[in-house]
């Protein structure tokens, strides 16, 4: 079974994306048209109000986990050809860093790297979560990659080293 899974991963392409909780409806739309692996780094950043109390942080975390569970269940039930891997990414912001100008920014590069490290396919396709791929795009990319790989192998067979 592990060999079959590895072969399937090698012959596939993953969409990599990232989003915050408010963009999860766009992830749902993306999953509806994608028939391959989809890796999303979900940012669990919180507002200043969430940091004021332990209860606020706990409530925010519960909302993020519930939203992640809901989207995962929805995709699994309604779009079985899309394999969603959702990674929740939280950042611990230390008190001295909270006042920093950088603490306010969305960590897009970190999220992209988290998604990339979770990809299990040789080919990846970085997309903004607002992009909805055309139906059948996964199969067309896989087919094109297979043809190109076949052409590269054929070209290599005819070459002689000197």
UniProtKB/TrEMBL annotation:
PANTHER family, per database record: GLYCOSYLTRANSFERASE-LIKE PROTEIN GNT13-RELATED (PTHR12270:SF52), GLYCOSYLTRANSFERASE-RELATED (PTHR12270)
Record's subcellular location: Membrane
Organism per entry: Octactis speculum
Keywords, comma-separated and alphabetical: Glycoprotein, Membrane, Signal-anchor, Transmembrane, Transmembrane helix
Organism domain of life: Eukaryota
Gene Ontology terms describing biological process: protein O-linked glycosylation via mannose
Topology with respect to the bilayer: Single-pass type II membrane protein
Any one Gene Ontology cellular component term annotated for this protein: membrane
GO MF annotations in UniProt: glucuronosyltransferase activity; xylosyltransferase activity
Main location: membrane
Protein name: Uncharacterized protein
